[in-house]
Amino acid sequence: MNLLIAQSSAPAATASTQTFMLLLVAMSLLPFLLTMVTSFAKLVITLGILRQAIGTPQIPPTSVLTGIALILSLHIMAPVAIDAWSRYESKARSDGVAQQLDAVAFATSVEESLRHFLERHSDPQNVELFRGLRTRLLADQGRANRQETPDVGMRLAQSEWQDVYDTLTIRAPAFVLTELTRAFQIGFLLFIPFLVLDLVVSNILLAMGMHMMQPSLVSLPLKILLFVLVDGWRLLIEGIVESYVP
Questions:
Q1: What is the number of other CB atoms lying within 10 angstroms of the CB of residue 133?
Q2: Which end of the chain has fewer CB within 10 Å, C or N?
Q3: Whole-structure pTM value
């Protein structure tokens, strides 16, 4: 009797162990997902450039900028999380396992929602770039190993894991490159008005003969005043958030 009980509980214990291991893997990948395949990188880079453009390298502190980027990332990525949960619930109802959390089905739902998010916000040229680079790398690896059969990368690209493989090796790096490009574009536009203000203040001080006075002492409060008058925080945050609207 004890043997039968042990045998019947073995599959449940195995499934529980697998679920626990998948959760550990997901938790270990969470920082990577947070910084690379969300809006976090674009936000924190843009806010950092804004801080440099105003001329206050320590204000707001880095921890505050990181917190702002994190909160806005949660706001931007909330529809993706809702879509992933909706996909999981529909799969659970169709499979009849709505009462328990299927880690594999949940991970698949998250990957599908994240894949669509990355596709919408990645430059097609960057996608083609990394697709071509991956093809060249796999071809070079095959020639280096002198294998007659496709290597592991080729088999993954042709298996049922193709979407996951493409997400990790093509869509994610293409999205990161696109976000970096857009963040620096926004940063350039942010620098222009403050740079013009610096030049105007410097020329005025030189014309007044105030050579010993640092222009930043005058331009800094004017920059802050200008940013507040145009409601800069609202305009910047609104523009970034709306860039993720489908």
A1: 13
A2: N
A3: 0.74
